[in-house]
Design brief:
mainly alpha; about 75% helix; two-stranded antiparallel sheet
Length: about 200
């Protein structure tokens, strides 16, 4: 069995997250803190937060989403662009998805030393929406309800926008939105025809 990048990311994230559950010092060093990025140039935090999670439930939810949709998208990239290019594209989508997910929180919170966030949700959102744009008519089961991928995409944005405006959830909904938008943009950059398929969907 070939050890793909998807599997490596999954294993590393689980190992680092579980270690951080038991090591508070490590967790604090890897958190995304916009204030420390700005005032102390700790720019590595734009990326390190993706490898740690708040608890096992948080980790399990992110990694399950990443496992099921990420492996399909990775395989699609490899089929379309070859193994090396496909893996490079998949890595770029995940890593920069995690980075772009921090941009809105950074703008909002770079003067707040008490703001912290963590988790792969933004990077996973980029992968999920890469999948949605790549295969908008795929059948998904979301909270036990069957729906097409493009329907899930609309519901996701509606909910995250509402939750972000409402506030008080303790969840970085703005990071989810940022990651998702990057996932869409990335697919349009590497394969504009996927965007045309979506446009044709709404023109029918």
């Amino acid at each position: 069995m070939t050890l793909t990048l998807h599997t490596i990311i999954l294993i590393v994230t689980i190992l680092v997250s579980v270690n951080a559950f038991k090591n508070e010092d490590l967790k604090q060093k890897m958190l995304f803190n916009a204030y420390l990025c700005k005032e102390q140039n700790q720019f590595y935090r734009f990326f390190s937060h993706v490898l740690i999670h708040a608890d096992f439930q948080h980790l399990a939810f992110n990694m399950m989403s990443f496992y099921f949709l990420g492996r399909y998208l990775e395989a699609s990239f490899i089929y379309e662009y070859g193994f090396l290019n496909g893996e490079v594209y998949f890595l770029m989508l995940y890593v920069f998805g995690g980075f772009f997910a921090t941009l809105i929180p950074y703008i909002r919170n770079n003067s707040n030393p008490h703001y912290n966030s963590l988790g792969a949700s933004g990077a996973v959102s980029a992968v999920v929406f890469g999948f949605v744009l790549w295969n908008p008519f795929a059948d998904l089961i979301v909270l036990f309800f069957p729906m097409k991928a493009w329907v899930f995409g609309l519901l996701f944005f509606a909910y995250e926008y509402w939750a972000d405006k409402k506030g008080g959830t303790g969840i970085a909904h703005d990071a989810h939105i940022g990651g998702a938008l990057f996932g869409i943009l990335f697919i349009l950059i590497i394969n504009i025809d996927k965007g045309k398929e979506i446009i044709n969907l709404y023109l029918k």
